[in-house]
Amino acid sequence: MSNKKTKLSVMLTAAFLTVILAGVFVTGFAGFKLNTASEQQALTRARLGDLQALQTLKDNLTQQALLLVSAAAGTQPQTEEKLKTQFLSYRPRMTIPLRISGS
Q: Contact 90/67 with Cβ under 8 angstroms?
């Protein structure tokens, strides 16, 4: 009878250790995934400013191109001097500093 109690205690101990080890592995895997997610968020935050600056630059270039096309097409009844003044006095709306990263 002592042999059966020993087998039962060994089985219960093995099952208990299995549950604990499974919990440790799940916790480790979750920690790894959370770390990866926070790295992705950091990269997104780092690149978002560059993306917004490039979009602003694109908008500014589009505005200048539209001004030139409208002047060439004659859709705006303005004199050449007035168009030149408007083109040269246009201030780009650069709200975000452009960073050039080395990666």
A: yes
